[in-house]
Structures are given as structure tokens and as C-alpha cells.
């Protein structure tokens, strides 16, 4: 993954830095990438690392900036996002190695965008959505009144990521034909994250579930906050979560057939990711919706088993 227009050692180091971030923070995601061909993995790691850095800035604000990026600790989160966009645009235009604090991640991301001809607009859409998470920005929201509003947010925070990754994976049809399913799968993953992370998001003063859907079950922000304080899931919240999980599974049902539009070699990795993320929903249900007490995770042995099964199935199909 070396571009002759950039210093080879710096570019290789940039991709290694992205791989470390993916391995440390995206266990399910990282495991799924192990099923990709070796030449595709660095690009996927670069996109994950880019999204992770932005997520850290938005979710942890000054603490993340001060601890991880001390050179720019004086900037507010909105300023950090502006800096990232400015530096990424510079990297794309000048084919330059970007300096710290975001140098390795943006250098690898820019190289990936050029190498796989990814539309840069997907990154600007993503950053615009992330600005909705930052207090003080014009479009900041800490709650979403309707599913339509949440979908607007997810079009940047999730669907755009699916569209970023699609050219790396490759398709057996024109890319445009595979885009709706890729966007839907990104949104399905995102909604699963929202369900899993309700407690953590409440701690940050945010709710990423549609208020009108919750209200139909007698659930509001105060009840969610009470559940967080007591670490007990009220029966009304259980019913609301069951409904949102059903909505989430319906998104998966519409998205998963699109995996067959991808190149055969990458399908096991994406099926693994879909199965493992769907497994988080199973864990939430199996716990009695105890999302305020602990974080639902798929056990390591189950993650390995799912990945191994998908790999073995793909190998048998190729031999057949």
C-alpha cells in the first residue's frame, strides 16, 4: 500500500498506526477484516481509524484531545473537526504527509481515498453528522424527536461509512447498484451500537433513540435516566427496546442480501460483521435488556467461531 508520490516509510508507518487503532478498539470489526485479502485490510483499517479519531473527539471532547493529541488541546471539539477536515482536504489536494496530531491517520485515509477512488463527499457528510454531536455547533442535537431525524443523523454517521468502504470491498455489479444496501448495513450497525450504548450515551447527556417511538411505550428521558441511576431496566423500557431491536433487525434483513453484490472473496468478512453485530442484539435480549447494568458484548469464543465458520464455508464454495 505504498504510493510513489509519498515517502514510502512514512506511508507504511501510517497504515501500521491505523491497524493498531483498529486492533485495540474495534474487536468485532478487526476480526471481520481478518477475512479480507491482505491488500484490502490496510485500507479498511485506515477508514476505521479515521472514524475512531473523530468519534473520540466528539465523545470525549477535551479529555481525549488533551490526552491523545496534546499539541491541539486548546481547540474545542468543533475546532478539532474543522482541523481534521482542513488537513484531509490538504492531504487529498497536495498528496502531502500531514503533521501531528492526526498525521498518520489522515495520511493513510487520504491514500486510501485516492487508491480506491472513494468519493470525498462521503467524508464531508460524515464530519457534518459528527458536528451534530458537538454542543455549540449550529446543528447540535442531544436527542432525536423522530426516527426520521435519527435517520438524518445516521446518513452521515453510518450510511456514509458504508459508502466509503464499498469501493474497497469491490462489487460484481456497478457500484451504484450496491450503494443502497451498503448504506443500510452501515445504519443497521449504527443502530445496534446505539442500543448497546444507551447507558454510556446517557452519561454524556445524549439519547440516540427516537423520542416518539419511546413515548409510545411510556418512556421518556427521565425514565431512562432513572434506569441508569438504579441500573435496572423498567418494564416499559424493555418493551420499547424490544420494538427498536425489531426495527433494527428489519434494517439488517433489507441490507444483508446486498452482501451478494460484493466480490465473493470479501463476502465472508461482511457476513461475519453482520452476524456478530446481530449477536449484540441477541445478547441484549438474553440479558433481559439489562443495558444499564453492563455492556452487551459477543463473547470472544463466539466471535472466533462465527468468523471461522464463514471462512470455512467460503473456502468450500471456492473449491466446489
TrEMBL record:
The keyword Transferase applies. Pfam families: SQS_PSY (PF00494). One of its GO terms (molecular function) is geranylgeranyl diphosphate synthase activity. InterPro entries: Isoprenoid_synthase_dom_sf, Squ/phyt_synthse, Squalene/phytoene_synthase_CS, Trans_IPPS_bact-type, Trans_IPPS_HH. Pathway: Carotenoid biosynthesis; phytoene biosynthesis. GO terms for biological process: carotenoid biosynthetic process. Keywords: Transferase. PROSITE patterns: SQUALEN_PHYTOEN_SYN_2. This is Phytoene synthase. It comes from Nocardia tenerifensis. The lineage of its organism: Bacteria, Bacillati, Actinomycetota, Actinomycetes, Mycobacteriales.
Amino acid at each position: 500500500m505504498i504510493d510513489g508520490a509519498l515517502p514510502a516509510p512514512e506511508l507504511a508507518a501510517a497504515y501500521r498506526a491505523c491497524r493498531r487503532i483498529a486492533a485495540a478498539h474495534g474487536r468485532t470489526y478487526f476480526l471481520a477484516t481478518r477475512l479480507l485479502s491482505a491488500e484490502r485490510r490496510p485500507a479498511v483499517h485506515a477508514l476505521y481509524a479515521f472514524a475512531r479519531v473523530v468519534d473520540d473527539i466528539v465523545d470525549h471532547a477535551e479529555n481525549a484531545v488533551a490526552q491523545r493529541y496534546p499539541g491541539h488541546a486548546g481547540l474545542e471539539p468543533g475546532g478539532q473537526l474543522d482541523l481534521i477536515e482542513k488537513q484531509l482536504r490538504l492531504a487529498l489536494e497536495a498528496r502531502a504527509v500531514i503533521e501531528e496530531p492526526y498525521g498518520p491517520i489522515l495520511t493513510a485515509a487520504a491514500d486510501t481515498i485516492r487508491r480506491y477512488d472513494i468519493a470525498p463527499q462521503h467524508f464531508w457528510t460524515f464530519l457534518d453528522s459528527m458536528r451534530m454531536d458537538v454542543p455549540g455547533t449550529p446543528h447540535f442535537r442531544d436527542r432525536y424527536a423522530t426516527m426520521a431525524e435519527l435517520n438524518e443523523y445516521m446518513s452521515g454517521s453510518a450510511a456514509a461509512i458504508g459508502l466509503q468502504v464499498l469501493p474497497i470491498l469491490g462489487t460484481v455489479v456497478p457500484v451504484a447498484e450496491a450503494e443502497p444496501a451498503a448504506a443500510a448495513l452501515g445504519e443497521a450497525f449504527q443502530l445496534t451500537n446505539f442500543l448497546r450504548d444507551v447507558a454510556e450515551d446517557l452519561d454524556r447527556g445524549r439519547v440516540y433513540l427516537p423520542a416518539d417511538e419511546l413515548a409510545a411505550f411510556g418512556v421518556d428521558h427521565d425514565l431512562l435516566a432513572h434506569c441508569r441511576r438504579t441500573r435496572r431496566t423498567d418494564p416499559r423500557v424493555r418493551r420499547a427496546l424490544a420494538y427498536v431491536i425489531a426495527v433494527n433487525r428489519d434494517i439488517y434483513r433489507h441490507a444483508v442480501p446486498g452482501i451478494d453484490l460484493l466480490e465473493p472473496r470479501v463476502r465472508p468478512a461482511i457476513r461475519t460483521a453482520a452476524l456478530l453485530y446481530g449477536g449484540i442484539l441477541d445478547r441484549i435480549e438474553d440479558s433481559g435488556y439489562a443495558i444499564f447494568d453492563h455492556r452487551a458484548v459477543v463473547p470472544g469464543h463466539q466471535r472466533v467461531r462465527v468468523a471461522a465458520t464463514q471462512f470455512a464455508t467460503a473456502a468450500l464454495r471456492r473449491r466446489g
